[in-house]
Each structure stands twice: as C-alpha cells, then as structure tokens.
C-alpha cells in the first residue's frame, strides 16, 4: 500500500517573488506531509539506501521513527552518523545517492529522503531540542585543517571517539564552501552556523584566521603535540578559460564572485557596504551547481539578462536537475553547445563581447559524457558586459607548496592511500583537495572515512 502513495513534494516560493531577494527558495515539508512521506518507506530487509549514503545514515531507522511521529527520535538517529543534517537535506544530491537506489524508485518515485532529513533537522532547530552533545574525554590531540564539509565531519566523528580535536580555518568564519560558495537562497548562513555550533558542542575547538602552511606549518602542529592531522582544505583555485581577454575588467571567477556575495554580504547591500558591479547582460560559463548559483545571484543583484553558456547539451549538465529547473523558472537563459574563443574588451579594457564557437557532440570522453567537437567556421559574437567563469576548481595549492614532502598528482590533488594517509605518516586527507571539486556529501564521506582511519592509526600506536 505504501508504495502506491504518490511522493510528496516540498513547496517553493514562486519565481517572480524569489528573484527579488535572497530568501530561501524551498520551504520544507509540513509535519503532516513529512509523516505521510516517511510512511511510504517499506522498511526493506536489505535497504540499499544506506549503502547509497556516503555518511552511512540509518535511513530506514530514522524514517520509521518519523513515520511514527517521533521527530526527536528521528533527529537523534540521523545524528548518530551525520552532524550536518540541515545542510545535507538542502544541498546533498540525494537523487544520485540514497534516493537513486531506493527500491520504490524501480517502479515509481523514491522516498524523499533528503527533504525528510531537512525536515527533521529544521524541526529540531525550531523546537530548540538539540541532541545532547558528547563530552571531551581527554584523548590524544588531532588537528583538522579546514572547516568545510570534510573537516566538520572528520572533526565531529573524532570528537565522538574521544579525541581532543582542534579545527583550523584560514578565513574569519567557519564553514568553508558551505559559507562562501553556496548562496543564501539555497543554504542560509544561519543554518551553517547552527551546524558548526553543534560540531563545536561535541568538544571540537575552532581556531579561525589560521592559515596552515603560513601561520603554522604541519611540522609545528606535530611539535605542539598533535598526533595526527587531517587536511580538508578544499579546492579553492579556480580553473581558467585560457582564452584571450580573460583578464578584462568585468570578468569574475565564480569563487571571487560568490565570496563577495556570501562572505562579504553583498546580498544585503546597502546594509553591508559591499557593492558588486553587476552588468546588464551577464554570461556565465559552465553548467554545474556553481554556475547556477552564480547566474541566479547575478539576477537577484540586478542583471537584466543572464545566460548560461555551456559547451555540451542539457543532458550532460553536471548541475542538479532541480537547480537547473529553478534557474529556468527564474528566467536564466541557456545557450548550449558553444565554447568561448575570445573575450572582447572595449577601449577602456572592460568586457563588451564574447566570441563563441559552436560545438557538436562526439563520442564519450573519460567523464562518460559525449565530447564537444568544434564546428569549424561557426564563430559568432555575443554582446555582454560581465562574465562569470564557473568551469570548476583545482585543489588549494598552499599546503602542498609549504610542505614539499607531501606528494601530489600533476593536477594538484593530494595523493592518499587506501588508509586515507598521505605520503607523510600521520597526515591524512580527504574532500576536494584529494578529489578536485566535487559534492558536499562526497567530502563528508571522505571526512568520515578519514576519522575512522585516524582512529585505527592512533590505536595501532
């Protein structure tokens, strides 16, 4: 019977209203809808959804509690494995993880696991019923570099194991990409703060404005008594287009653009005096979540026309389907199968046009997506006055450069073994600094695996 009930969908603010501000787009389930949706779970004997969750949440367990109306119990069940449920429920690509392997999805729609995780976390926040934190037990000292999703997860899990954990953040506020890379309308800063505060309540010490490799070296951390180090400093080096004119005025890298909007609170101008010069005609290169975020921010900040320019087709877009749909609803235009060959500045050095080359799709490449093939002689120009480059990021190079004995791939990723350990004994790594730019949940999964590896390493003596 449960599988015959249609999947419930979260309500959203209408596009014509949400494009005027940075308030959250998705509104979350009501209690009634959440309980009804949780009841759709058929409590499989061998649930595949748990294996599809990088942070190993007992999904049937929390859904069963939620279906019975025990919301607090559901939150506790989630937090046995995941310290960041309100974040995961908003930005985790559940459609490619737990929901993808939900048995109900074989003949119908999978349970809305992500939306239910968000509901449980938001209920806890609204009812001020935080799960009782663990207490520091005076175990060995472990340093965690970076307070993004990998670092927060690793730190929280290690603290639960009884270690004394210090998390070092180079910026003035914690959260990493959760704070500076994801817009307020998709992940409110207040949510990030609450989740960080929960990790700190587990006994994790947080030190901001500390740049490992400059303020303190990893060698100095070991001298200070830290027995192991986890590097989760992310992928903060933007990839370039590599075309003439890329240094013209009015060309932003997505990192810079979103940092100004998020961390410097440009979305609350003039309350915060951080203006961002927005063109009337904005071109965003790329089609991942970051590109969608940048395009939607530009629209909210006053652009008259915003276009996503992508060298493949819609089928190959790496962004979440729901984010693509939301961008379309808000009026973002999509120009597909084109690649930039030149950014053309005016006499003052400010971007005025972009030259594009039309593409067609060939055979699949190493990513599994069909390779874009240039169409000779198909160049044309498009009038624009602002560009945002959102074609991915590479691992942060600062720590490897300051630590020559730390081995890296040619493209910059830190090399780790099956035990998550780097070339330096006692130093572990995970997240984007190992993978390159990836998802929040994959970084969290790396942080969880690294915490287990560190525990095994320290117990082995």
How does this structure look, described?
- This protein has 461 residues and is of the alpha/beta class.
- It is built from 17 helices and 16 strands.
- It has helices at residues 15-18, 31-38, 48-51, 59-67, 71-79, 85-91, 113-126, 149-160, 177-180, 189-201, 218-223, 254-262, 289-300, 321-329, 398-402, 432-435, 440-459; strands at residues 141-145, 164-168, 205-207, 226-231, 237-238, 251-253, 281-285, 305-310, 333-336, 338-345, 351-364, 370-374, 380-383, 386-389, 393-394, 427-429.
- Helix 2 (31-38) crosses helix 7 (113-126), helix 5 (71-79) crosses helix 7 (113-126) and helix 12 (254-262) packs across helix 13.
- The N and C termini lie far apart (54 Å).
Helices and strands, with pairings:
Blueprint: H1 15-18, H2 31-38, H3 48-51, H4 59-67, H5 71-79, H6 85-91, H7 113-126, E1 141-145, H8 149-160, E2 164-168, H9 177-180, H10 189-201, E3 205-207, H11 218-223, E4 226-231, E5 237-238, E6 251-253, H12 254-262, E7 281-285, H13 289-300, E8 305-310, H14 321-329, E9 333-336, E10 338-345, E11 351-364, E12 370-374, E13 380-383, E14 386-389, E15 393-394, H15 398-402, E16 427-429, H16 432-435, H17 440-459
Parallel strand pairs: 1-2, 1-4, 2-3, 4-16, 6-14, 7-8, 7-14, 8-9
Antiparallel strand pairs: 5-15, 10-11, 11-12, 11-13
């Amino acid at each position: 019977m449960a599988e015959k009930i249609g999947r419930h969908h979260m309500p959203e603010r209408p596009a014509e209203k949400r494009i005027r501000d940075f308030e959250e787009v998705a509104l979350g389930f009501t209690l009634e809808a959440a309980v009804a949706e949780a009841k759709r779970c058929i409590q499989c004997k061998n649930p595949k959804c748990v294996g599809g969750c990088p942070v190993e949440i007992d999904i049937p367990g929390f859904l069963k509690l939620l279906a019975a109306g025990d919301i607090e119990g559901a939150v506790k069940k989630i937090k046995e494995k995941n310290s960041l449920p309100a974040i995961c429920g908003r930005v985790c690509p559940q459609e490619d993880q737990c929901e993808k392997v939900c048995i109900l999805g074989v003949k119908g729609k999978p349970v809305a696991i992500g939306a239910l995780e968000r509901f449980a976390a938001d209920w806890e926040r609204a009812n001020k019923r935080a799960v009782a934190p663990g207490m520091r037990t005076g175990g060995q000292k472990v340093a965690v570099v970076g307070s993004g999703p990998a670092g927060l997860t690793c730190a929280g899990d290690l603290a639960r194991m009884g270690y004394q954990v210090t998390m070092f953040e180079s910026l003035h506020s914690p959260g990493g990409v959760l704070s500076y890379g994801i817009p307020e309308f998709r992940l409110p800063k207040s949510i990030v703060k609450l989740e960080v505060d929960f990790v700190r309540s587990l006994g994790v010490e947080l030190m901001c404005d500390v740049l490992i490799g400059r303020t303190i070296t990893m060698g100095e951390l070991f001298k200070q008594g830290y027995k192991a180090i986890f590097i989760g400093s992310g992928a903060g080096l933007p990839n370039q287009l590599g075309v003439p004119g890329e240094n013209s005025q009015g060309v932003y890298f997505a990192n810079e653009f979103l940092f100004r909007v998020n961390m410097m609170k440009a979305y609350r101008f003039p309350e915060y005096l951080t203006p961002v010069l927005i063109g009337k005609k904005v071109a965003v290169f790329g089609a991942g979540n970051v590109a969608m975020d940048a395009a939607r921010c530009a629209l909210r900040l006053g652009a008259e026309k915003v276009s996503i320019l992508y060298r493949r087709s819609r089928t190959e877009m790496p962004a979440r389907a729901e984010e693509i749909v939301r961008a379309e609803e808000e009026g973002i235009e999509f120009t597909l199968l084109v690649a930039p060959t030149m950014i053309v500045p005016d006499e003052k050095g400010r971007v005025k046009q972009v030259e594009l080359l039309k593409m067609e799709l060939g055979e699949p490449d190493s990513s599994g997506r069909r390779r874009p093939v240039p169409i000779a002689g198909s160049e044309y120009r498009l009038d624009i006055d602002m560009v945002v480059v959102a074609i991915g990021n590479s691992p942060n190079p600062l720590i490897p450069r300051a630590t020559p004995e730390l081995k890296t791939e040619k493209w910059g990723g830190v090399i780790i073994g099956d035990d998550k350990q780097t070339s330096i004994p006692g130093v572990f790594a995970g997240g984007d600094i190992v993978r390159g730019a990836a998802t929040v949940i994959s970084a969290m999964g790396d942080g969880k695996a690294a915490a287990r590896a560190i525990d095994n390493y320290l117990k082995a003596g």
